[in-house]
Amino acid sequence: MIHTVKAGETLVSIAGDYRKSLASLIAANPGITPYLIYVGQSILIPGFPPSASIPYSIRISISNRTLTLLYQGQRRKVYPIGVGRMLHETPTGNYIIINKAPNPGGPYGTMWMSLSKKGYGIHGTNDPSSIGKYVSRGCVRMYNKDVEELARTIPIGTPVSIRP
């Protein structure tokens, strides 16, 4: 998987976002100077399939509070979601699903899927009344049955686009 460096990122922060060691990123990118990366530079992230090889993608609309599952670019299903509240907004940008954890407990419901932005994910909820609202600390909340269905459908590495 290729990551394109954005303003403010460091190789250390990129490694953290993808839950990879700095050493693994350096090894996967021969010739890279770890503390001299630049905006627009392509960084190979080891252990994830190329995004183009995955037929699924996810498009999240914060304002509509919907998550749309696409298959080969065609809408397959639209799910209602809860998103970040004021001062804890859901981050916009392009990410991938980097792991899945069933039954994480607490407010995360029956499934957690980490985004390639440290601290954020798509998860179930122990409060179904929060779906459709601006209530989270930045994560995307789904009904448990919906997030379980989504997790069964998509592979690790699925691209996720979050827009206002």
TrEMBL record:
Any Pfam family hit: LysM
Domain L,D-TPase catalytic stretches: 56-163
Residue ranges of domain LysM in the record: 1-45
Active site (record annotation): 123, 139
Pathway membership: Cell wall biogenesis; peptidoglycan biosynthesis
GO cellular component: extracellular region
One MF term in the entry's GO annotations: glycosyltransferase activity
Keywords from the UniProt entry: Cell shape, Cell wall biogenesis/degradation, Glycosyltransferase, Hydrolase, Peptidoglycan synthesis, Transferase
BP terms from Gene Ontology: cell wall organization; peptidoglycan-protein cross-linking; regulation of cell shape
SMART domains, per database record: LysM
UniProt xrefs under InterPro entries: LD-transpeptidase, LD_TPept_cat_dom, LysM, LysM_dom_sf, Transpep_catalytic_dom
CDD domains: LysM, YkuD_like
Superkingdom in the source lineage: Bacteria
PANTHER family associated with the record: L,D-TRANSPEPTIDASE (PTHR30582), L,D-TRANSPEPTIDASE ERFK_SRFK-RELATED (PTHR30582:SF24)
Family per similarity comment: Belongs to the YkuD family.
Name of the protein in question: L,D-transpeptidase
Origin species: Domibacillus epiphyticus
